[in-house]
């Protein structure tokens, strides 16, 4: 089973090579560097679904928050 987590893009590092474009993504305060090659439309402030260091798609803030709320509920159980 695979798990992808929503995070907010807080900065983007452009690169001449599009496949090397990366960004800093915040997962509730934990910041990781993520490859943005699959989401060339991504911009600072967007929420992305991230799996094994790759942003797979952009989602709206409401959907991201709903998913994060589910994770909190799971932790409480």
UniProtKB/TrEMBL annotation:
PROSITE patterns: HUPF_HYPC. InterPro entries: Hydgase_assmbl_chp_CS (IPR019812), Hydrogenase_HupF/HypC (IPR001109). It comes from the Bacteria. Coiled coil: none annotated. It holds the Pfam family HupF_HypC. SUPFAM superfamilies: HupF/HypC-like. Belongs to the HupF/HypC family. NCBIfam families: hypC_hupF. This is HypC/HybG/HupF family hydrogenase formation chaperone.
């Amino acid at each position: 089973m695979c798990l992808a987590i929503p995070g907010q893009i807080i900065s983007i590092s452009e690169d001449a090579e599009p496949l090397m474009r990366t960004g800093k993504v915040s997962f509730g305060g934990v910041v990781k560097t993520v490859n943005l090659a699959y989401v060339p439309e991504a911009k600072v402030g967007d929420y992305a679904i991230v799996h094994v260091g790759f942003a797979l798609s952009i989602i709206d803030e409401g959907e991201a928050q709903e998913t994060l709320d589910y994770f909190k509920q799971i932790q409480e159980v």
